[in-house]
């Protein structure tokens, strides 16, 4: 009989995986300095320092071969210690400062750029999209790659007014995209289709119950009907019945949001608002996505004050000026802050402030 080690289940004690310098100064870190793009120097109250080198990672997936290469570098330059950040950046932890240049040269030779710190473009995050999900309306990793290529210099240099975070979600079920300075959100533009010849295989009550807006009603004893007026194209019903399909290659695309923020610095966290309700899917270079994002970013770079995130810049100048400066046409489908109207009245489109 297999013996189960007591305490061998679950997350191992955190101390087992911490670099010695982190363990020695656990809970006693004082501050950090940005040495140069991609290099952060953490300083403990004891005076000890810990250097971190941050690199960009591919959106949503990384090959075993790449991970083995990075692990070899971690063994050679950071005592085998590394961490993956919330934005999927890879960080070598506790690098010898005398070996920083050598490590940066070697990791960049593998194709991983060093950067994404302070006032730069931080690692773009994207959901896996078509790789493993049945809901996406767009190819999140593909757009992330196209944007990463187009904005490569902004990842490597700290010359933006403030941090720039771009999140990409393949469908409207993800709130993560609305929590970034610029978000891309996949949108289905039509209601799901019901395969009448197969729908009887599904459990009617489960399918009806899965709809968050009550758009699905029974149709006889074996089928269902979808009310287009109520359907928000979320695709939840397709997860409960394989006879309901969502997505149309000719209609699907994505929306663009701006002004989201997850951190509590400055004026605090906020949800972004949709400013471009639809752009078509256009792989492999995703020109529409790249143009929209660079257009918004350039307007912000040109007009923002130092350390002003996109949200704070828009709230200072007002949404009407944002649309003009970014060269975006106002659409009736834009989200204009209905839920937070009092809070955002000052910057509401209808005020023209
Ligand atoms: S955001 Fe949507 S498309 Fe992307 S993984 Fe989540 S459910 Fe799937
Ligand atoms: S896509 Fe979403 S809103 Fe539309 S019918 Fe299905 S579950 Fe309901």
TrEMBL record:
Family matches, as NCBIfam families: dsrB
A single MF term (Gene Ontology) = electron transfer activity
Its domain of life reads: Bacteria
Boundaries of each 4Fe-4S ferredoxin-type domain copy?
A: 222-250
Q: What does the record give as EC number? A: 1.8.99.5
Q: Does the keyword Metal-binding apply?
A: yes
Per the record, the GO terms for biological process are: sulfur compound metabolic process
What this protein is called in its record is: Dissimilatory-type sulfite reductase subunit beta
> What UniProt keywords are attached to this protein's entry?
4Fe-4S, Iron, Iron-sulfur, Metal-binding, Oxidoreductase
Q: Which InterPro entries match?
A: 4Fe4S_Fe-S-bd, 4Fe4S_Fe_S_CS, DsrB, NiRdtase/SiRdtase_haem-b_fer, Nit/Sulf_reduc_fer-like_dom_sf, NO2/SO3_Rdtase_4Fe4S_dom, NO2/SO3_Rdtase_4Fe4S_prot, NO2/SO3_Rdtase_4Fe4S_sf
